[in-house]
Amino acid sequence: MKQITFLTYFLLVLFAVSFSSCKKWLELKPQDGIVKEEFWKTKEQVKASVIGIYSSMMEYSSGSYGNPTNYVPSMAELFFVWGEGRADHVASATASSADDIALINANIQPTNVNANWRPFYRTINFCNTVIEKAPEVLANDNTFTQQQLDNYLSEALTIRALMYFYLARTFGDVPLKLDATLSDENITPIPKTPQAEIFAQIVKDLTAAEAKAVTSYGDVASDKGRVTVYTINAILADVYLWMEKYTESVAACDKIINSGKFGLIRGATQNGPAIEYNDAWFNTLYYNGNSNEGIFELQFSQQRLNPFFLIFSPATSARRWIAAADLMERVFTVDYTNDQNYDIRGDGGSVRAATSTVWKYVGASSTGAIRPLDQSYAHWFFYRYADVLLMKAEALNELGRGQEALDIIYSVRARANALAATDLTPAPTDKNLIQDFILEERAREFCFEGKRWYDVLRNAKRNKYERLGILLSMVSISVPSSMQQSAQAKFKDQNSHYLPIYLYEMQTNKQLVQNPFYK
Hints:
Elements: H1 2-14, H2 43-56, H3 75-84, E1 90-92, H4 98-104, H5 118-133, H6 146-171, H7 195-212, H8 220-225, H9 229-242, H10 246-257, E2 268-271, E3 274-277, H11 279-288, E4 294-298, E5 321-323, H12 327-332, E6 351-352, E7 357-358, E8 380-384, H13 385-398, H14 402-416, H15 431-445, H16 452-465, H17 468-478, H18 484-491, H19 503-508
Antiparallel strand pairs: 1-5, 2-3, 4-8, 6-7
Helix pairs in contact: 1-2, 2-5, 2-6, 5-6, 6-7, 7-9, 9-10, 9-13, 10-13, 13-14, 13-15, 14-15, 15-16, 16-17, 17-18
């Protein structure tokens, strides 16, 4: 973490990007320091620039919250909002803005700040700059090896792919920028690229990155917080699910599983109906992070607190998001015959039921108090081993290997003491019911981890929206009853499943065309 701390200062000098100019259509221009020829001379500068890519994903929001003309959300905040805001696990809180509520109510407009993609393109440009400039250092520093360069390029290619994966799932067609913007003179507005081409580029980048990637950096924090070959395969498995390439998805999952480097953190010991809440499970997985289950996590620390603690904590006046009122009963289920029998991922795991608090990011333990502000360093989880297992189960089910899929699901459920009431008991040949079972298990396992909307959309759109009803059923839960008829009608239009392009991006890039539903 000392490395990240040093880069916090370093980036203020080299990577700071002004958010004040309305002349720039995407926040693509790095400060001049990063592109001056005298900078790209040493391997240490390349390493610092690569670490800076990660640091850019950890930045705080800027501007005045609620002011659409200057507010730019933090990327970590958008990971949550894009993945959960339109789904059925969250509700608005006292500090929710009109934009947050509009997102929940399926009434988002192009002026909604939650549609601001600027932080993602900022990080993409940092990646592009490293990809373009780092190879020049080979000629300038004879201690810089090709292998070191390849490793750094792998990191930049992977993060670029991850950024585009978020953008393509959230907006559909988006601008595809693969070269670095190094000065004001080469800021060129570009139109959107079809989503299918974005996905193809993501696979191309990840395939190239895999061939150059490390398996370990030699320390746990780096192995969990920087790109490894396992990070790449986790993203590939996810991308292939979206592309409906199930054999490839299974193969990517198996590379992680067969490595033997990861496992599930078991949190429950069962003796009949009695269940012991295991604080060690919560502390290992969520409070401390970097567990044996972690594959890729943003490394917040005491020196670099996360930007999303305040939007969840009931101890502040800034809380914007709480758990849906019926989350415990609907998702995790309550055993009314024995209150010691419960899914550990529910009350005290993902949520504090009594206060509807999003607990995994603010809790000090499964049963204890809220973290103090100076301990608000919970990690953001991109991928955990449980995700790899359930992605493999999803792909296996689509390949007609239902029993193998069920075996995986039950292994994930066992570690959490999932209640029998949430067991759908599908037959191995019942593909749709197994699909529902996996989707429900993912809801329990990754509650509030920015995956719910994407999971529902992916399952709904499979086979040309064969199961649109999955998404419509979710809307009947997430949207207030007075607005459900309108929301249902909207979501029957597939174009509504993507966010609008932010109005202020439209104004600064005349090559952009608004997404169809919002024209």
